[in-house]
Amino acid sequence: xxxxxxxxxxxxxxxxxxxxxxxxxxxxxxxxxxxxxxxxxxxxxxxxxxxxxxxxxxxxxxxxxxxxxxxxxxxxxxxxxxxxxxxxxxxxxxxxxxxxxxxxxxxxxxxxxxxxxxxxxxxxxxxxxxxxxxxxxxxxxxxxxxxxxxxxxxxxxxxxxxxxxxxxxxxxxxxxxxxxxxxxxxxxxxxxxxxxxxxxxxxxxxxxxxxxxxxxxxxxxxxxxxxxxxxxxxxxxxxxxxxxxxxxxxxxxxxxxxxxxxxxxxxxxxxxxxxxxxxxxxxxxxxxxxxxxxxxxxxxxxxxxxxxxxxxxxxxxxxxxxxxxxxxxxxxxxxxxxxxxxxxxxxxxxxxxxxxxxxxxxxxxxxxxxxxxxxxxxxxxxxxxxxxxxxxxxxxxxxxxxxxxx
Amino acid sequence: xxxxxxxxxxxxxxxxxxxxxxxxxxxxxxxxxxxxxxxxxxxxxxxxxxxxxxxxxxxxxxxxxxxxxxxxxxxxxxxxxxxxxxxxxxxxxxxxxxxxxxxxxxxxx
Lengths: 406, 109
What we know:
The structure holds 2 protein chains of 2 kinds.
Chain A: H1 8-21, E1 32-33, E2 38-41, E3 44-48, H2 61-74, H3 82-85, H4 89-102, E4 106-110, H5 113-124, E5 130-134, H6 139-148, E6 151-155, H7 160-170, E7 178-182, H8 194-204, E8 207-211, H9 226-230, E9 238-242, E10 252-256, H10 261-264, H11 269-272, H12 279-294, H13 296-315, E11 319-320, E12 327-332, H14 335-347, E13 350-351, E14 353-355, E15 365-370, H15 377-389
Parallel strand pairs in A: 3-13, 5-6, 5-7, 7-8, 8-9
Antiparallel strand pairs in A: 1-2, 2-3, 4-10, 9-10, 11-12, 12-15, 14-15
Helix pairs in contact in A: 2-12, 4-12, 5-6, 7-8, 13-15
Chain B: H1 2-5, H2 9-17, H3 19-41, H4 65-79, H5 94-108
Helix pairs in contact in B: 2-3, 3-4, 3-5
């Protein structure tokens, strides 16, 4: 048996998809990036509506200038880990700025958001400990649990009563349990009920970690995320976030008031054994954070666009996620339908994300749009028009005479 | 039964002090768990397929790891116990799953 044998099912699935739509939806070539919201794919000018570029800062002039200056003055990379090679002043400054923004004692910056979840969870939740997590948590959270070796108990998605029940069953162990949820879930764009989750934590004990990857810069009056909006920041022990969404770069962080976080840095393998973020990335992220703070109008524009698309697609008869948010999910009836639908959007110059089981909750197939403050109202309307064209494929009743029979 | 008691001296002692009642109780509990697992897996059994302790969850019933974890949520609530998803890699057959849960029931009772 060869080492690639267990990947044979992937080869079969790729062939299947290739025969159906002729392109690989999970390896799309972006031939040219034109702006934060436009690119060229398969020779066609395309509206990018699946980038998580919530504030549209990837082409912000100030961010680019900061990155360019860092490149010129500090070089292209750090060529090693901070533990071995030392911290650049930018790393330390960004950690201080994040601590100040979130009102927390200290922050650790990671090279990616994935590594932030992996590192923090794996370091805190070692064998003998217990993690209680929302069933729909991101793969990076599950991977952190696996790496740490703690017992992992799931609770039903966004069900605080279910969490409370599972904490109760843990008895004395609940006091040290690490409860892990996300603020805004990336598949369906739904919010965690953090008030109730925090109440369950207060009743049974434990530490609460909230991954605000999709909500920092997006939710809350100050842009600190769902915990801010829910008014429960004091109940949240650890906030994890990323630089690769609203902040327009790559990287991740964990911020906390607990003094123990300072020690995590020395025990956290995904922090120690990887190169630290490049100076240009740190510089653009710092600038993006300052823009996020002083330009709340970006958040307002983002939400106007999100509402416009969510309501527009709902009016067309689509089954959308449970509440409006910058993640607009459109639920489809089967894997085949989702593939054909996604390809139809591509042919109309709209790029969104195709999501299939097992990456999705409850085995559903969906296409997922992420809205940006940089989308113009005309672009949002163009996305809506493409969806209007494809109602037949989605099997929306009354959409046209040639409703697909499935 | 011995497997369930290994590593848990108090349970082992009870087993010996009150052998007949405990053995019957344990057997009954195991059967109850097995029935619950059968019930949870029934929707995955295609056609005339009959479930047994040797039925394999992935290769025969076509479950993926997410579906096994969903089944665990139901079982946790049915028996009011905590079932860490860490057991999933060790579960190949229906019997493996029932035995793992049985052991957890013993440990948590």
